[in-house]
Amino acid sequence: MRNSIYPNPFTPKSGMEPRVFIGREKEIGIFERKLDEALKLKRYDHFLILGEWGIGKTSLLREFKKIAQANKVLTSYLPIREFQESDKFISATQHLISQIPRNLPVKYEILKNFMEYLRGIGISLPIIGGGVQLPEKIEVEGDPQVLLLDILERLWHAVKKETDVVVILLDDAQNYHPISGYLTIIKNVLSDDVIVKNTGFLFVLASTPEAWGQFLKKHHPIGRYFIPTLRLNRLCHSETLDVLDKILDATGVTFNDSIKSKIWQYTEGHPFELQILCSFLYDNQLGGKVTDDTWEVSLDMAITQIGNILFDHLYDDASPSEKEILKVISEEYKPVESKTITEKIKKFKNEAVNKYLHRLVSKKLLILEQRGVFALPDRMFREYVLRKF
Ligand SMILES: Nc1ncnc2c1ncn2[C@@H]1O[C@H](COP(=O)(O)OP(=O)(O)OP(=O)(O)O)[C@@H](O)[C@H]1O
Ligand SMILES: [Mg+2]
């Protein structure tokens, strides 16, 4: 018997390029405009993407890279690594100057002198395209701001015959959290006359909103610098259906209408949840069809997996009493007031319930819909909580 089913086309992993990229027209339009201004007017309007976990920041940045390079603009995508409070700003500069060039698609000869210079100051780079990443072992010395500025200027001179603009995509900028003052250094470098007048870098940063909010509290001017700030949201209903239709196209597998409608109800267009759930549904096809028969088992598998990646960690943060409250809200599954909780859990006094509810909000396990009204952040999280009891 022959197998006519295509390998699973879904991408249930963070940072994994989707088989078909859907939506984000507004964000792509803004990027194209900024790129155009950089190319034609030499105006470099660095901007920021904000989005929660799994909402599609990395995929969008990778899309920007494709667009820029289709226009022959050299582009370097790099995820910011994690830092500790004990790290110095110079390590962050070292990270940037070692990673930015190695992700540029240019011949070795073009960067040869530049790389020799880096080696001279103690920064080793693997040969471009060689695929080996050397650890950033040696701590370079110098002023982190001066060094970053100097290296960016040198890099520009090395590549300027190859490109009119260099796009730099810094993903996971929330990882600067323990050394958040470093963002001020990036801002200072990018707004320095030498960089503005003599080079052609366009930076796009991506971060989680919560971390960015913290940065702004500590370092106000950063907020005025990286504008516009684009907030990535869940996909809408038609985009969600579009993801399903386009990804399933020519795979030999179909999802029936009831399944499609449930996928929307449960994931509410969250790209990561969507990919995980669909990936399990796809694996559970029978005779090329995915029907209501396989819904429950696929949903359970998806929730366990999202649990391992995220929900377990969030949920473990709640105390036993807070967990009881989450259970009541999950059973209701509509935004609730504190009196609903005291009605259902008699042993809790109103005052205590209010305290628990606000704690749950600060732990990101609940959202405050309006004064005194609390809701779960996510339908899949509700399903997760219900399975805990
Ligand atoms: N526009 C899109 N169309 C289709 N699938 C998408 C889209 N954006 C993201 N995805 C899929 O959703 C999942 C999560 O996307 P991605 O990793 O880009 O999100 P993220 O915000 O960078 O997540 P993280 O918080 O883990 O860094 C991936 O499987 C990706 O393939
Ligand atoms: Mg990401």
Structure, described:
By secondary structure, the protein is of the alpha/beta class. It has three domains: 25-231, P-loop containing nucleotide triphosphate hydrolases (Rossmann fold), CATH 3.40.50; 237-313; 317-386, Orthogonal Bundle (Arc Repressor Mutant, subunit A). The chain contains 17 helices and ten strands. The chain has helices at residues 25-41, 57-70, 89-102, 108-120, 144-159, 182-190, 193-198, 209-218, 221-225, 237-248, 257-267, 271-283, 295-315, 320-332, 338-344, 350-362, 379-386; strands spanning 47-50, 74-79, 166-171, 201-207, 229-231, 254-255, 289-290, 336-337, 367-370, 373-375. Helix 15 (338-344) packs across helix 16. It is globular. Residues 128-134 have low confidence and may be disordered. The structure holds adenosine-5'-triphosphate and magnesium ion.
Architecture blueprint of SSEs:
Layout: H1 25-41, E1 47-50, H2 57-70, E2 74-79, H3 89-102, H4 108-120, H5 144-159, E3 166-171, H6 182-190, H7 193-198, E4 201-207, H8 209-218, H9 221-225, E5 229-231, H10 237-248, E6 254-255, H11 257-267, H12 271-283, E7 289-290, H13 295-315, H14 320-332, E8 336-337, H15 338-344, H16 350-362, E9 367-370, E10 373-375, H17 379-386
Parallel strand pairs: 1-4, 1-5, 2-3, 3-4, 6-7
Antiparallel strand pairs: 8-10, 9-10
Helix pairs in contact: 1-2, 3-5, 4-5, 5-6, 12-13, 13-17, 14-17, 15-16
The chain binds adenosine-5'-triphosphate and magnesium ion (MG).
Residues 14-15, 57-58, 171 line the site of magnesium ion (MG).
